[in-house]
Amino acid sequence: MDVLxxxxxxxxxxxxAALAQALPEARVHxxxxxxxxACDYAxxxxxxxxxxxxxxxxxxxxxxxxxxxxxxxDTNLPLDVPVVRLDDAGMGAQMEEYVAxxxxxxxxxxxxxxxxxxxxxxxxLPPRARGAFPIGIMGLGVLGARxxxxxxxxxxxxxxxxxxxxxxxxxxxxxxxxxxxxFLAPVRLLVCLLPLTDATRxxxxxxxxxxxxxGAALVNIARGGHLVEADLIALxxxxxxxxxxxxxxxxxxxxxxSALWRHPRVVVTPHVSAMTLVEESMQQIAAKxxxxxxxxPVVGVIDRARGY
Length: 308
Known about the structure:
The protein has helices at 13-22, 69-72, 91-107, 110-118, 142-153, 180-184, 206-210, 229-237, 278-293, and strands at 2-7, 27-30, 41-45, 60-63, 83-84, 135-138, 158-162, 172-175, 189-192, 216-220, 241-246, 266-268. The protein is an alpha/beta fold. It folds into two domains: 2-89 and 276-293, Rossmann fold; 91-268, 3-Layer(aba) Sandwich (Rossmann fold), CATH 3.40.50.720. The strands form two sheets. The chain has a seven-stranded parallel β-sheet. Helix 7 links the parallel strand 9 (189-192) and strand 10 (216-220). Helix 1 (13-22) packs across helix 9 (278-293) and helix 3 (91-107) packs across helix 5. The longest helix is centred in the first third of the chain and has 17 residues, at 91-107. 37% of the residues are buried.
């Protein structure tokens, strides 16, 4: 069995070593080294345009990540080969922690206290109750559903929105564009965990974010393409939104000239809300390849029509 590998990483060697260890029955070929033969499987993250050239033997493409928008955007992607994404591989727990920090940051008004500190103001603000601080999760896939349940267990009212109907115990779920306004109306902290598709690109815009109550906040840990940055800045500047925590951007690293770096109501993190863990992800990919070789179904096959 031959596996073709490419990952847009400063040093992909630990990833290849972990895959070779998890799948010792395979010959793992480094595409970047050149001279790769026709392979049975491709394991990749943000592959270059020439990655699939001449690869006519592929049985499946394994995406090193939960979001498959980058590989689906490749115009050379073979049309008849299934694309399989990671299910979690250690990302869920990291996202739970990240969103919990954001929730308590705004619940306990740490954003207000940070601004007060800059002005040397000793200003005690009235406390807020978790039960009166609804959190909205946009996107109820594997990671979104997990984050929603985690925030529910922390005592927050949680609402979820997705393209198709979902059911999560203790979470009020909404589905479809017609339910978006009702979903957003009471939300104090909106968390985007949507897949990036043609239908969701730019969904965090002036109209949508304007449906949130005055003083709400935004967390984007999905993809930068979901957010219209100019609309966010306008809503922050007129204080309709209290703040935003942004972990993903259309261009990464975020350019130094971006106004987001310096906006007093924005927290920027460098795409770290859920970092892909080497050992866990390669073990999961190895297990999926073995299942495919044995003719067994695998979780995470992408529906190309939907984009996730």
